Amino acid sequence: MAGLATAADLASYVLPLIGTEAGGNTFPGVSEPFGMVKLGPDMDTGPDATGSSYSGYVPGAAFFTGFSMLHESGTGGAPKYGVVSQMPITGIPVENPLLRHADARGAVADEASPGSYKATMASGIVVELAASSRAGLYQYTFPNSTSGTNSIIVDVSHFLPAPDRAYLSQHYLGGNISASAKPDGSSLQYQGAGTYNNGWNLSPAWTVFFCGYFDSPGTVQTFVGTSSTGSTIHQFPAASTVDTSPNRLGAVFSFNSTSTNTVTSRVGVSFMSTAQACSNVNSQVPPGTNRTALEAQTRAAWNDQVLSKITTTDRDNTTRLQLLYSSLYHMFLLPQNKTGENPLWTSSEPYYDDVFTLWDLFRCTTALFHVLQPTMYEEFIRSLVDIWRHEGFMPDARSSFFNGVTQGGSNADNVLADAYVKGVRGSINWYDAYAAMVTNAETVPVNNNDPRDPTGSTKEGRGALPDWHNYGFITRSYGRSVTRAVEYSVNDFSLYQVASGLGNANDASKYLDRSRNWRKHWNPSAASLGFSGFLVPRTKTSFIQQDPLLCGGCYWADDYYEALSWEYSFNAHHDMKALVNYSGGDTTFSNRLAMMFVPGQRPIGSEQFNNTIFNPGNEPSFTTPYLFNFVGRQDLSVQYSRAAADTYYQPTAGGLPGNSDAGAMESWVLWSMTGLYPITGQTTFLIGSPWFHNLTISLGGGKTLQITSTNVTTTTSSSQAIFVQSLKVNGQPWNRSWLTYDDIFANGGRLDFVLGPRPSNWSTDGSPPPSPATEDVVPPPLVLPSVVEQDRFRWRVERPVLASLVSAVSATLVISAVYLCLRRRRSQSLGKGQAHQIPTTEVIGGGVVGLAVARALAERAAAVAPSSSASPASSVLLLERHNTVGTETSARNSEVIHAGLYYGADSLKTQLCIRGRQLLYAFCDQYGVAHRRTGKWIVAQTPGQRASLERIYAFGQAYHDRDAVPLRWVGAAEAKAREPAVRAETGVLESLATGIVDSHGLMQTLLGLFEQAGGVLAPGSSVVKITPLPPLGSASASRQPGDGGWQLHVKTSSATDAEETVVTAETIVNAAGLGAAAVHNMITQRNGAADKPEPMTLYYAKGNYFSYAHSQPRVSTLVYPAPEPGLAGLGTHLTLDLAGRIRFGPDVEWVDDPTDLAVNAQQLPRAIEAIKTYLPGIDPAALQPDYAGMRPKLVSAGQGAADFVVRSEPGYRGWVNLLGIESPGLTSSLAIGEMVEKMVYSN
Q: What are the structural domains of the chain?
């Protein structure tokens, strides 16, 4: 270990167990650099474990539950993978392989080094692992025994769960397996596949194929359970081949303990096929492979490909060498190179997956990829662009072939800009790359309705673009508004950089201007710790006052993500001159920066860092220690960056300041060791001070960067020589605290430092680092009124999900406050002589129809309110029983804008669908809601189906406004040319008016307009009782129920069983969807009601949807089968989402429980049969259960179709009833809102 750290066995300095404790979440198992296979342990703390094992590993007293082929390193949120597992058992034969078969950690500590991992379990079994990029080798040494059986369980349903975050936890969806012994009995083999979903990126279904061998004689028995999660056995043994099943399944391999003490298994994996999995293992770990030889091969890969890129002859401090090379090791575990293993499309471009996340990586890691792995870096960028080509957006994060999660901005933009300005060209198509960046900057991504923050997409792109485009800032209509504003500014600066290089002057000017929008959140009056001027949330007209030292939960639905206002206020690194100016000039800026590192200043959330505002464990603070360079105090950059590194980084299991974040932490400390720090998206590198006497960095192509340091101190002490006294760059004296990529990296270079124990003024005569987004004259900051957080409490209630879940009691307070206002309004509006009566209305149900109705009523109320009156902020109250709007039928549908073809010329459905479609297209255009006019093909395969198409066409021709239902016949030749994969034996009728819409974006826009007009949302509020009130000021009985208004008893999600809130209104609108019958019956079946009619009953038709994970066949339009008489829907049709991905559904399954939203996988064979009638080329194996929706029907199965009910209930005053609002309810929503608004105001 004390030898020279030159290009020898540098792997001896690597400690893979660094970061496996204290939340570092690093992976200690076996992997090649960027390897797809990460073979390692899966562990927990016991059968009732409440925490997640992100990398599979758990330190201390813990249990092994398996050893699996796929893992990630340094991730958070929830675990991913932990699949294709083996679990060894010794002793008695396995009776039920589905029971928990865990084995505690033994007395011997785990051992890990690059290429090998070894664990000793309490049973005495020793497990040793080795791996290549796409295959692995297990070696089991069982304890000596004269009797008994040694077994290895292959459980296809095994995965890493997230017991602490169920909504992110992975699920097993199904699998298959076949297992057998060789005819001569010398060995065993198995192959199959497992399908899973979810994890930290909320991924839909993905499938991994496996192929394994055991080199010892033995027996094998397959097994099948009775469900996907339980431990009840259905068959054991089962058949040698277990076909695809949603139930748990696998195989038990048994070996005679008296004759077989050591068992070796080789396993390959693939995301393409079992054949490719077998090819992977047999080519990379062929029969007869020796474990130690495979370990040596992987170790050599680390030495040659990664560790040798930085060498030194400095051998004085082993601790530093261990930290250097262990950091390099962990930084190069992710992303994973899956080129040739992408099942979604065929491409000649590279493919990289498991990117966690560019929000974490863009500041330090990707720039170091460029320096140390230029070939991989170019491939990675090509992969990002190719994902955009095929899926519509580059990822900010990606795993199991699915984008997600986007924490702030679209940070692939920053990565691409950094590569472009540093001259990376190669095989990158920069015109496509720039187009991908423009997509991020201009296209609103489809809202994926993430429960952590459903205000905009967390999957990809920039979910808050509507505000960014409309205002140049981001209001609290969107979560993480301040974080996004800062990061969108940086993203737009990145577009400016590339547009400038490509000669697109107009775009460059636009995006440079937009890159300064962070300034619109800068409140010069905000104050903290004696300093003024901070980034804050805002409304359209004012700043919102708040303490810059607090950020709520610093989570998805808050103003700031994982950092304080203090931290984000230092993050406009492209516009530093303006930032320094706004902060009060160089001296004040320097003092503000220094305050970041003073212990005890942060009230909560930084206890492990002595309550400093600076948070070394979170990326928004990464660059902060180096910003002193911008104001002539490079010595302070060295002081504070070195203090953070020395304090929070050690080569120990708990030696990281937090989650590794897939190597982000490690890349920060690696830059610190070199004495440089990158500013991503620019060619600038800030100068710190190096840790070693010498470093040689290999840059590829025979180029190197040589860094030498005179007077380096190899021990950590208060007198260590860390401050730069002088510097030469390429042999020339240097007096600037920064340099450029071209200075030392483009063609290689040399840095010669002289260090000392005290600061010097070596760089004070040099110019400050560039501030490329800043004008020559910085305009003053905006001066806006500041409002106290009066809306904040309401926002906490109205903003869906986590904020309201944390403090759901606030819903009760909102309803109570609204009650007082409504009650006061009621007494005023019912008085005589009122010139402007504004009805107080309560809309029950916050689906898309309820939102459209509430918005229409609130805007009408705002329009008719007298100018002298108080704001009509409480004229409309929207009650939603869930903690966010639009989670039932509105969130689980095809998102199709229907044309109105099927419902009869005189039906309300047809009238509202056609009117609603026209309104919806105009609304989406006006407010930037993502949508597309795709058109729709209705296809016929038989003469009878052709007759159905003829009837539809005749309806369109006869409709009183023929232009409202545009239809045309598509001839056979045209059909073949346009959609060659679609079968239509007897005809194609094209609906030109059909389209698709982002339903979640639509609902959030409606919600924003509703609130803007003064409406109030009360989430988590269930109506439990409705009572008509007598008229005010009248002793006589009501002539009809509702003459005096209505009283609603509401139970909030925070209330106890006995607690209810009572609110009143003149008018109630029942838009409760699946709960509409219950609300109806509260009125008609109430105690004291005269002539009670029969209770209303709804019937529930569940529709199962299926995703399609294959690039072929390609279809560019919606495809519907010809309607069949008697069906409760339109058949299992093909729809597209806005990214062009195919999905199928819904079918029709009648159920009794409207909450039964589990996809019925048993429906899949029937769906495949239906789909193949019009799309014969589908790959059935690529179809997976996706989600299910529920349609409230007014008639039961076999009774035909019922029309919408939208009416003022006869015999009542102030009750508008919406019943049976199913498809085309989404399309009709705005028209229904328009209709209800007229009903309410006509009364």
A: 10-306 (2.70.98.10), 342-565 (1.20.1050.60), 842-863+873-932+996-1030+1041-1095+1203-1242 (3.50.50.60), 936-992+1099-1193 (3.30.9.10)
